[in-house]
Design goal:
Jelly Rolls, six-stranded mixed beta sheet
Length: about 500
């Protein structure tokens, strides 16, 4: 029977040869503490004994009216089924009881129960358990007292799983974001090594050609002329850049420069043209070796300068991303801090950048930059911003606009996240903040994101979070009190509106 599901275990109970449950065995189960012999006899009448072997399922998840299982001896394991994944939960050690909460409340168990060792059990049908439990206040009260800690534990497990999934997604996105500048920096460093080799080789060529001091000065002046002016040049469009390269290439070939094609693009990029090549030839008195060495020198300088800029930009991007993560997690800060509201939102947008880049969603910011700082728990608020922005992106799909607005409202900071997606159906909107309620496909949502956001705003910060929705416009509004005197003149603040 190993591995076979028991969708209604009591139907298989009363197995031939299984010893009957005794009064003494019922007394060991805390559900029945304090009951008289007469009351216990009533439970014996409806309890059917059976055995379960390692790996055998005792109860299935999300099935209703499975009744109550009394685990007389042995160990059972709770398994949380989330889509295609099965995650281990807690263990049940006999003597104990299982399934009473689901039976009394009429809800699914929420977990699959599987025998881990040989188990001796008693099965009580759902209707029989409800009838007896409701007639015995002691049993009913014990079941009700267990609801809160059990639901809290299940919620904590799912919340931790949700956080880990979010962290995994964020880590994957950041790894992708960091990979681009890191690869660019590695490529630039490799090419920089080649450019430095050319610069070192040029000096040898000048010496071998017997260049005079006067000629060397002329070549240096021609070098500085274009290299120094390169930083102030405006980039050419593709067509003009191609024409400039062709002109330089023709001039280099006329000057008999070997492998002229190698130097045309870097020279044209810094403004060297056919006239400049002609002046190099004139200064070198037609010495092809000197002309070639000068051209290679200037081209390598141009390349090295561009690579240095690329290295600086790549490392700056990596530093910004690391800074964003540090700001996002509020590392090195205490739990309660004075926070810049907009900094937290912008950091969240940057951290979610990998997801936004895969869409054509436009982010419009309508910020009141003069809002005072908030005294709040930074890491918790990042959870709120992450959930609200992530939900808006999911609702929009590939196209649309998300508008984020901040303003002062009756002594609070009011933050609105408005998307122009399809909206939330009227019959669903009142439930979006309920724990475990989700409209996403199985395995793609736990129904905890908005519930967590609401708890953080309302319970942890004394604020409020509501949703208003109609087709084409959904707005989640957050109010957060400043917990202190507002800065003078905040009511008359100007707005900062930007679009990306």
């Amino acid at each position: 029977m190993s591995g076979q599901a028991r969708t209604a275990p009591w139907q298989d109970a009363g197995q031939m040869g299984t010893p009957a449950i005794t009064v003494d065995e019922l007394r060991q189960i805390d559900l029945f503490f304090g009951l008289s012999d007469e009351e216990l006899a009533g439970w014996l009448d409806v309890t059917l004994p059976y055995e379960a072997f390692p790996g055998e399922q005792i109860a299935e998840d999300n099935a209703s009216d499975q009744g109550v299982q009394l685990l007389i001896s042995g160990t059972a394991r709770n398994l949380l089924v989330r889509g295609d994944r099965i995650e281990p939960g807690g263990r049940q050690h006999g003597p104990t009881w299982m399934g009473a909460i689901a039976t009394l409340t009429g809800t699914p168990t929420g977990a699959r129960i599987q025998a881990e060792t040989h188990c001796r059990l008693g099965a009580i049908g759902a209707s029989a358990f409800r009838e007896l439990a409701l007639s015995q206040p002691i049993v009913h009260r014990r079941v009700m007292e267990a609801i809160a800690p059990v639901m809290t534990k299940i919620s904590a497990i799912d919340q931790n799983r949700d956080r880990l999934a979010s962290l995994g997604t964020m880590a994957a996105g950041l790894a992708h974001e960091l990979n681009n500048p890191a690869a660019a920096a590695q490529r630039a460093a490799s090419q920089m090594d080649d450019a430095l080799g050319v610069l070192n080789h040029t000096l040898r060529k000048f010496i071998e050609a017997g260049v005079t001091l006067e000629t060397a000065r002329k070549m240096l002046a021609l070098h500085d002329e274009v290299v120094d002016a390169a930083s102030s040049r405006t980039a050419l469009d593709a067509l003009d850049a191609a024409d400039a390269e062709d002109d330089v290439l023709d001039a280099l070939e006329d000057a008999s420069v070997p492998e002229a094609w190698r130097y045309a693009e870097p020279l044209a990029s810094i403004g060297a043209d056919a006239a400049w090549v002609a002046r190099v030839s004139e200064a070198a008195a037609g010495d092809a070796a000197v002309v070639s060495a000068t051209v290679a020198w200037v081209a390598a300088s141009a390349t090295a300068g561009g690579l240095a800029d690329e290295l600086k930009e790549s490392t700056r991007r990596m530093t910004d991303l690391v800074g964003a993560v540090k700001s996002y997690t509020y590392m090195d800060r205490g739990e309660l801090q004075e926070l810049d509201l907009h900094e937290g939102i912008e950091t969240t947008i940057k951290v979610l950048g990998h997801k936004l880049k895969q869409t054509h969603i436009e982010i419009v910011r309508d910020y009141d930059r003069s809002l005072p700082k908030l005294t709040a728990r930074g890491p918790e608020l990042t959870q709120v911003w992450t959930n609200l922005i992530d939900n808006a992106v999911d609702a929009l799909g590939n196209d649309g606009t998300l508008t984020i607005t901040t303003r002062l409202d009756n002594g609070c900071a009011r933050i609105e996240f408005t998307d122009d997606g399809p909206g939330i159906p009227a019959d669903i909107a009142p439930r979006v903040f309920e724990s475990f309620f989700t409209t996403k496909d199985v395995g793609k949502g736990t129904g905890l994101g908005l519930a967590t956001a609401h708890r953080i705003v309302a319970d942890r910060h004394g604020g409020s979070l509501i949703v208003e929705s109609e087709p084409g416009r959904t707005t989640f509004s957050v109010w957060l009190p400043f917990q202190g005197a507002l800065a003078a003149g905040a009511d008359d603040a100007g707005a900062d509106t930007t679009t990306t």
